[in-house]
Amino acid sequence: MPRSSEFAIAALLLAAPAVRGAPARPAVPAVARLGFVEHGVQLSSARGWYAAKEGTAMRLGERLRTGADALARLDLPWMTMTLGPASAVAFPDDYLLSAVLEQGRVQLHAEKREILKLVTGEAEVRGQGRVVVRREGGATLVTSLAGHFFVEGAGRIVALPAGTGTIVRQGKPPLSASTLPQPPEWLSPGSDPQYVALGETVSLNWEAKGSAHQVEVLPVGSDDVLIQHDVGAPPWRVAIPWRGAFRWRVATRDERGLEGQPSADGLICVDK
Q1: For the segment 132-191, what is each residue's pLDDT rounded down to a tens digit?
Q2: How many domains does the chain have?
Q3: How far, in Å, CA of 243 to CA of 197, rounded?
Q4: Nearest residue to 267 via CA among 213, 194, 185
Q5: Can you say whether the dihedral through the CA atoms of 72, 222, 76, 258 is positive or negative?
Q6: In DSSP terms, which residues pair with 133 in a beta bridge?
Q7: Nearest to 157 by CA among 123, 206, 182, 190
Q8: Can you give the residue range of the structural domain that contains 86?
Q9: Are 208 and 89 part of one and the same domain?
Q10: 222 and 114 together in one domain
Q11: 202 and 150 within one domain
Q12: What angle do CA 135, 146, 168 make, to 5 degrees?
């Protein structure tokens, strides 16, 4: 489908009234909608930054940023983009629709079509499936979790099949695709769920090489990430602020910072 057609579809599907209390914005096309907001998430406007709310449409020329403990999910008609803590993304008001990761971590998920092109100061990422892109320390780190992706930098393109990753530094081409760190094992709580009261802290433990990891908490039966944090060596404690059945998983980051495949799921039930 031509890019102009994609743009028109996105604008039609995401057009909606402004959220009450938000500053007035120009009548420009909406490209995404905030499907989930947790803690401090802000959206830009002509008058500056304001608190983002679930259901708000994000438009060309706007930016979104998350606080140190925050998480946000942007829904597009054909893909989702999940921003981790301390991250910032923008949708430039350009003819060719793309997203710019200014800092932090995003996870992109698009099964039926290619993701929206993601640009950083060092690289461009395209492809289809599920991918994690980080921008930190003057480098872009890309992990292909499922599907197939292409990373371009300094005139060179590297293909990333599932289970591989690459790093792109300023002005340099992407490194050759490399194998990702092994998923952690022996999760606790594991497949036998741990039952806790609402607000009760759960100690998450696992066995893995390395001292840097990232943890996610998701609902059972859904791929929507509700909590995501970069953490050190286990254990790590979390209090889930909702009732229901949840799964958690953890991935190891190697000495370069490249994130590996996530572990199997552990289960937590918040029922009191």
Answers
A1: 999 998 999 999 999 999 999 999 999 999 999 999 999 999 999 999 999 999 999 999
A2: 2
A3: 8
A4: 194
A5: positive
A6: 106, 142
A7: 123
A8: 3-179
A9: no
A10: no
A11: no
A12: 30
